[in-house]
Amino acid sequence: MNPRPLIEAMMRPDFYPHAVDRVEMVQTHISWVFLTGPFAYKVKKPVDFGFVDFTTLERRRFFCEQELILNRRLAPELYLEVLPIGRNGGAYRLGGKAGIEEYCLKMVQFSQDDLLDRRLEHANFDPAWMDQLAADVSTFHATAETGPAIQAFGAPHFLRDHIEANFSVAREHLGEVISDQRLSSLRELTGTFLRHHSRRLEKRQREGRIRACHGDLHLKNIALYHEKPKVFDCIEFNDEFRMIDTMNDVAFLIMDCDARNRPDLGLRFLSRYLEYSGDYGGLMLLPLYLSYRAGVRGKVACLLSKDEGIAPEARAQQLAEAARYFSLAESYMLPKHPRLFAVGGLSGSGKSRLALLGCGAERAVVIRSDATRKRLAGRLSDLPLYGREMNARTYASMLKAAKLALAAGFSVILDATFQRREDRDRVRRLGESAGTGSRLFWLDVDEATLRQHIRRRVRKGTDVSDADLRVLEMQLEHYQRPDEADIRFLSSTEAWPA
C-alpha cells in the first residue's frame, strides 16, 4: 500500500464533514494522527514490527475497534467512533459502506500544548496532577479485568522475551546507540534479576496482580481535559504488552519522569499510588520494570530512526535518545544505597510538604500516616480513627511498608507525628536492621501557626488528613518535645534539609 494519496487526502480540509481551517499531522512509529480542530482522526500504518502487525485492512479495522473499546475505560469522553474511509473514482471520502480502503478512529481533539510532556517542557506543570493520576490509575487497576487467561501473561518468560526484544533492536545499532559492554552488562543484570525473582513474579500471578492494564502510561499519553489529567492511547495491538503486572504499568510513568530529570514527579506519583493500592510488595520488582520501560523507549527511538525519508539530523537525534534510554535502563539495575528518614511534628506543622520536598532529592517513597490510616480504616471501620489501637496499627503498617521499600532499594520518608518515643525508636531499629541508618527531623512550630494551618486545610477540604483542631488539642494535651540527641529540629519547610 502506498499511503501518500491517503495522507494527501486527509490533509485537505474539505475531506472532513465539519468545518476545518487547517489540518496538522503528527505521527508515531505505528500511526498517523490528523488534527482538524474539533476532532482528531487516527490511522494505523500498514507496518509489521513483529510485536505489532497492521499489514492487512482487516487487522487495522479490528485494532481500531479494540482501541476504541479499551481506551473508553479511562477516557470515555475522548473516544468517539471508528469510521471507514472509502474511495470512489480515485477520490477518498470519510464514511460510507462501499469501496472501503482504510479505517480511522475519531477522537475529541485537545490542544497539543495540554499534553503533560508539553506542559513539563514549558514549565507549566502542577505537581498535584500526579496525585490525581495516582488516584485514577489505582482505581483503574483495582477494577481492570483479570482471570486465568490474563494471569498467564505474567509468566516470567513473557517479560524475559520482551526485554530481549529491546536488546535485539539495540544490537542493530552497536556503536551508535549502545556499546557491546553496556549491552552485555544489561543482559547479565536483568538475567540475574529474573532468575532471583522468578518465584516472586509467579506469586504476583497468584495474587491477581496481572491485569488488563494500559501498557503505555507516560506523559505524552496524558492530557489535561477540563483541567484534569486524562490518560489515553493504551496498548491495543498486543495483549502481551497490556496484560501485565500493575507495577509494570506504573513503572512507565515513573521512568518517563526520570528521563525528563524530574524524579520528584515520578516518586510523588509512586508514593501516592502505593497509598491507594497498598502494593508495597510490588516494589521489589519495580527496578526491573523501570529498566524494561527505559529499554522500550530506547527500542522505539531506534525504530523511529529507520523511518523512510527521515532527515539525517532527525535520525541522529533519535539515536542519541535511544542511547540515553539504554543508559538509564542500566542505571536501574545497579546496586542502590537507600536511606531512611522520618519527619515528625504536630498536626499542621508542614510535615507532608517537607516530605514532598525530599521525595525527588532522595529518590524516596513517601509513606504518610494520614493516608495509611485511611486505607486501614476501610477494613477496620469499628476502630476510632485516632484511637490508640488505630494509631498502633498505622505505625506498624508504615514500618512494614518502609521495610519492603528499603529492601527494594528505595529510600523512604516516613511522615507522621511521631509523638511517642516508642515510635521513634522503632524507626531507629528499622534503620539498624536494614543497614540504612535513620535520620529523624522534628518540625518545631508554634501553636498559633499550627492552628492557622489546620483551619486553612479544613477550609480547602482537599487534604488527606482528617486531623482537625480537636485532634491538635489532643496532641497538645500530652505533648512533650523530643529530647533525643540524634533528632534535627527544623522551624520551617522551605527546603529539604541538606
Walkthrough of the structure:
- Helices cover 48% and strands 15% of the residues.
- The chain is an alpha/beta fold.
- Helix 7 crosses helix 13 (312-333) and helix 15 packs across helix 16 (388-407).
- The mean pLDDT is 93.
Short key terms for the protein model shown above:
498 residues; alpha/beta; Aminoglycoside 3'-phosphotransferase, Chain: A, domain 2; Rossmann fold; 3 domains; six-stranded antiparallel β-sheet; 19 helices; globular
Show the helix and strand layout.
Elements: H1 4-10, E1 24-27, E2 31-35, E3 39-44, H2 57-71, E4 79-88, E5 91-94, E6 100-108, H3 116-121, H4 129-143, H5 148-151, H6 156-171, H7 180-196, H8 198-206, E7 210-212, E8 222-225, E9 228-231, H9 239-242, E10 243-245, H10 246-259, H11 263-277, H12 286-304, H13 312-333, E11 340-344, H14 351-361, E12 364-368, H15 369-377, H16 388-407, E13 411-415, H17 421-434, E14 439-443, H18 447-460, H19 469-477, E15 487-490
Parallel strand pairs: 11-13, 11-14, 12-13, 14-15
Antiparallel strand pairs: 1-2, 2-3, 3-6, 4-5, 4-6, 7-10, 8-9
Helix pairs in contact: 4-11, 6-7, 6-12, 7-13, 10-11, 10-12, 11-14, 12-13, 15-16, 16-17
Task: Write a brief structural summary.
This protein is of the alpha/beta class and 498 residues long. The chain folds into three domains: 4-109, no CATH class; 116-333, Alpha-Beta Complex (Aminoglycoside 3'-phosphotransferase, Chain: A, domain 2); 340-490, P-loop containing nucleotide triphosphate hydrolases (Rossmann fold). The protein is 48% helix and 15% strand.
Largest sheet, described in full? 6 strands, antiparallel
Tell me roughly what share of residues is in helical segments. 40-55%
Query: What is the CATH topology classification name of the largest domain?
Result: Aminoglycoside 3'-phosphotransferase, Chain: A, domain 2
In whole angstroms, the N-to-C terminal distance is: 60 Å
Molecular shape: globular
Mean pLDDT: 93
Radius of gyration: 25 Å
What percentage of amino acids are in beta strands? 15-25%
* Content-based structural category: alpha/beta
- CATH architecture level-2 label of the largest domain: Alpha-Beta Complex
Q: How many discrete domains?
A: 3
